[in-house]
Amino acid sequence: MNFLPIIEAKRDGGELSSEQVHELVTTYTASEIPDHQMSAFLMSVFFRGMSQAETRALTLAMRDSGTLLEFPEDDRPLVDKHSTGGVGDKVSIALAPLLACLNFRVPMISGRGLGITGGTLDKLETIPGFTTQLPPERIIEQVQHIGVAMVGQSVEIAPADKALYSLRDVTGTVPSVPLITASILSKKLAEGIDALVMDVKFGRAAFMTDMDAARELARSISELATECGVKTTALMTAMDTPLGRAAGNWLEVKEAVDCLDFRGPEDLQELVLTCASELLMVTGKTVDSTIGRQRAEEELASGRPRTKLDELVAAQGGDVAVFREQLKQDHIAPVVSDLVTGKEGFIAQCDAQLVGEIVRDLGGGRLTKDSVIHPAVGVDQLAKPGDAFDRKSTLARVHARTETEAEAALARLGKVFNFAAEPPELPPLIVTI
Fold first, then answer.
1. Which residue among the candidates 76, 81, 90, 168 is catalytic per the annotation?
2. Which pTM does this prediction carry?
3. Active-site residue among 81, 82, 188, 306?
4. What domains can you pick out in the chain, each with its CATH number?
5. Catalytic: 22?
6. Known catalytic residue: 17?
7. What mean pLDDT value characterizes the chain?
């Protein structure tokens, strides 16, 4: 393939045919196009964009670069949820078992964290023995049997996406709406799902800091997924403040389990229930959001989703007995230190970006893809905007490997919070697109 004319066409703002897009994906996946040329193409897309037709062709070509999951006929719809990532976002761990109990099948392919954004796979792998790598036939078997699997992207599913994302990550071309759309949907379409709920974050600690940019991405994904036969609904959620009151891999698993025990933080529970309600509506299982929300809430309160999580853990190699014992522990990090205030009033701000950076620097996140994750570290008991406090109140706890790291984190945590004498006006968590 002579790739240069395609680079030049996109550089000059031209539109590629579906055949050209398919050929370039196929050829690159076969290692017949050098990285430097594909990098030039990605940079051209970053600046010139792609039409809806081009984005659709790119998505389908990336989907078709690997194995497609083919499930048997079943009355239970195949559904999934995807988030663009945020600090403290452990929604998937609580939502997936809930959806399975609502009579859905959930073949959830998740990712790892990079930078300040935590990854679902990193969180799940803090569960003793849990494996996130399953072959396609095992995913299908497990989903059919217990209703849910939570796995990572394998070399067999959308390998073109994995190769292209690695290149985008080192060439500054990640924040491109058509490239993000194709990356997300190629994996979701490979799952063979019937319906999808998207959670697009915006705010200081979000991938898309600007609300309008987040809205553009939400619409791009929703429209293309629907065009490709997947019933899709999208939410936009604020990421100026961490979701929940814990950030850090094991701490977030504990908080997700609290949510399944119907005693999790209000904002986390709100988003879990809203995602479930949206999927109930878009698949025709309920006629409106009120009924869907009530049904999801009743199922969550029943305790069945908590039991389903144990089923999931056991199915993917986890030791349920050890998992349950570990959940009883207050912490598993060697050092735990409290940030105590000498003031009184109300929390006006809890900076999610700074919290994410602190957790990352404690060892809970990655600076590069080769960084080693330390599962026990993080921050919990976070005070949130609107919380009242007085002198000697704990604003947060640091979980660290050493006293020195704990002291450094505590010094930075003091800058996370802004205070007010009166209760602040709180913005909504969820915004419609």
1. 168
2. 0.94
3. 82
4. 4-49 (1.20.970.10), 79-324 (3.40.1030.10), 335-420 (3.90.1170.30)
5. no
6. no
7. 94
